[in-house]
Amino acid sequence: MNLKTRIALLSGWLGVMAFFSFVVAPSAFKVLPTQHLAGQVVSRLLRIALAGAVTPSQPSQPSPTATGSFRPFASRGVPVTNADIDRLRDAEGV
What we know:
Number of helices: 3
Oligomer: single chain
Largest sheet: none
Mean pLDDT: 80
Low-confidence stretches: none
Radius of gyration: 19 Å
Strand content: under 5%
Helix content: 55-70%
Number of strands: 0
Distance between the termini: 25 Å
Protein backbone atom coordinates (compact mmCIF):
# COMPACT_ATOMS: atom_id res chain seq x y z
CA MET A 1 0.00 0.00 0.00
CA ASN A 2 1.54 3.28 -1.06
CA LEU A 3 1.82 6.41 1.07
CA LYS A 4 -1.02 8.32 -0.63
CA THR A 5 -3.43 5.46 -0.01
CA ARG A 6 -2.42 5.26 3.65
CA ILE A 7 -2.86 9.01 4.09
CA ALA A 8 -6.28 8.87 2.40
CA LEU A 9 -7.41 6.00 4.65
CA LEU A 10 -6.15 7.74 7.78
CA SER A 11 -7.85 10.99 6.74
CA GLY A 12 -11.13 9.16 6.15
CA TRP A 13 -10.92 7.44 9.53
CA LEU A 14 -10.16 10.71 11.29
CA GLY A 15 -13.04 12.36 9.43
CA VAL A 16 -15.46 9.68 10.63
CA MET A 17 -14.21 10.08 14.21
CA ALA A 18 -14.60 13.87 14.03
CA PHE A 19 -18.09 13.57 12.53
CA PHE A 20 -19.23 11.27 15.33
CA SER A 21 -17.56 13.41 18.00
CA PHE A 22 -18.87 16.78 16.88
CA VAL A 23 -22.17 15.97 15.11
CA VAL A 24 -23.68 12.57 15.92
CA ALA A 25 -22.92 12.26 19.64
CA PRO A 26 -24.01 15.79 20.67
CA SER A 27 -27.16 15.48 18.54
CA ALA A 28 -28.05 12.14 20.09
CA PHE A 29 -27.60 13.49 23.62
CA LYS A 30 -29.79 16.52 22.83
CA VAL A 31 -32.60 14.65 21.06
CA LEU A 32 -32.95 11.36 22.94
CA PRO A 33 -34.81 11.32 26.28
CA THR A 34 -32.08 9.73 28.45
CA GLN A 35 -28.30 9.84 28.48
CA HIS A 36 -28.20 6.06 28.74
CA LEU A 37 -30.19 5.63 25.53
CA ALA A 38 -28.06 8.21 23.72
CA GLY A 39 -24.92 6.40 24.83
CA GLN A 40 -26.25 3.10 23.53
CA VAL A 41 -27.16 4.63 20.17
CA VAL A 42 -23.79 6.35 19.73
CA SER A 43 -21.92 3.22 20.83
CA ARG A 44 -23.80 1.02 18.37
CA LEU A 45 -23.31 3.48 15.51
CA LEU A 46 -19.59 3.74 16.21
CA ARG A 47 -19.28 -0.04 16.27
CA ILE A 48 -21.07 -0.32 12.95
CA ALA A 49 -19.11 2.49 11.29
CA LEU A 50 -15.63 1.67 12.55
CA ALA A 51 -15.53 -2.04 13.30
CA GLY A 52 -18.17 -3.32 10.91
CA ALA A 53 -19.46 -5.49 13.75
CA VAL A 54 -23.13 -5.43 12.76
CA THR A 55 -24.93 -4.64 9.53
CA PRO A 56 -28.58 -3.52 9.57
CA SER A 57 -29.67 -6.85 8.08
CA GLN A 58 -28.03 -8.82 10.91
CA PRO A 59 -29.78 -8.51 14.29
CA SER A 60 -27.34 -8.39 17.15
CA GLN A 61 -27.56 -10.25 20.42
CA PRO A 62 -25.49 -8.19 22.84
CA SER A 63 -23.52 -9.95 25.50
CA PRO A 64 -22.72 -8.13 28.75
CA THR A 65 -19.09 -9.30 28.52
CA ALA A 66 -18.64 -8.68 24.79
CA THR A 67 -16.92 -5.62 23.35
CA GLY A 68 -17.54 -4.77 19.72
CA SER A 69 -17.26 -7.89 17.62
CA PHE A 70 -15.08 -9.67 20.23
CA ARG A 71 -16.81 -12.59 21.94
CA PRO A 72 -14.85 -14.11 24.84
CA PHE A 73 -14.52 -17.85 25.33
CA ALA A 74 -16.51 -19.49 28.09
CA SER A 75 -14.75 -19.55 31.44
CA ARG A 76 -13.00 -22.79 32.36
CA GLY A 77 -12.72 -21.84 36.02
CA VAL A 78 -8.91 -21.69 35.87
CA PRO A 79 -7.09 -18.36 36.13
CA VAL A 80 -4.58 -17.55 33.39
CA THR A 81 -1.34 -15.98 34.62
CA ASN A 82 1.30 -13.98 32.77
CA ALA A 83 3.61 -16.99 33.12
CA ASP A 84 1.04 -19.12 31.24
CA ILE A 85 0.86 -16.55 28.45
CA ASP A 86 4.67 -16.31 28.26
CA ARG A 87 4.91 -20.11 28.05
CA LEU A 88 2.38 -20.19 25.18
CA ARG A 89 4.24 -17.40 23.33
CA ASP A 90 7.54 -19.24 23.69
CA ALA A 91 5.99 -22.51 22.50
CA GLU A 92 4.49 -20.81 19.40
CA GLY A 93 7.56 -18.70 18.68
CA VAL A 94 5.66 -15.43 18.87
